[in-house]
């Protein structure tokens, strides 16, 4: 295990996301909101969808996650991350894993299937540490 591995931590739900950088294993996390500049939140329309439209909220979530996965490719290339940790509620986490490019998917070293977009940095540091430990077992 490389102690200097640089990790991208993605914290998302179906409508919002945070990107954090961990410059070394078990090092401090740094919020990087500028890496998401221009990523649009997708919200379901206020009208009730027609039966053939499917669930507008699900479509909005899928569109957001697809956009996020695409954005992650650029961020990972620009900042040369060695590892990726994903934190999202189960459904959003599943969609995110599906939408990651093969290059990024190969860098996933841990996941946490919970809603934590509003969590503090200290909480996220604990979650990242636990995700690493669970993935190693």
Overview of this structure, please?
The chain has 137 residues and is of the alpha/beta class. It has helices at residues 56-79, 90-99, 102-105, 121-136, and strands at residues 7-12, 17-22, 30-31, 83-87, 108-112. Helices cover 39% and strands 18% of the residues. A five-stranded mixed beta sheet has the order 3-2-1-4-5. Strand 2 (17-22) and strand 3 (30-31) form a beta hairpin.
Sequence of strands across the biggest β-sheet: 3-2-1-4-5
* CATH topology descriptor: Nucleotidyltransferase, domain 5
Terminus-to-terminus distance: 14 Å
Strand content: 15-25%
Q: Mind telling me which CATH architecture this is? A: 2-Layer Sandwich
Overall pLDDT score: 88
- How much helix, percentage-wise, in residues? 25-40%
Compute the number of structural domains. 1
Rg over CA atoms: 15 Å
Give the ordered list of helices and strands: EEEHEHHEH
Tally the beta strands. Answer: 5
Shape: globular
Give me some keywords for this one:
137 residues, alpha/beta, Nucleotidyltransferase, domain 5, 4 helices, 5 strands, 18% strand, globular
What topology emerges from the helices and strands here?
Elements: E1 7-12, E2 17-22, E3 30-31, H1 56-79, E4 83-87, H2 90-99, H3 102-105, E5 108-112, H4 121-136
Parallel strand pairs: 1-4, 4-5
Antiparallel strand pairs: 1-2, 2-3
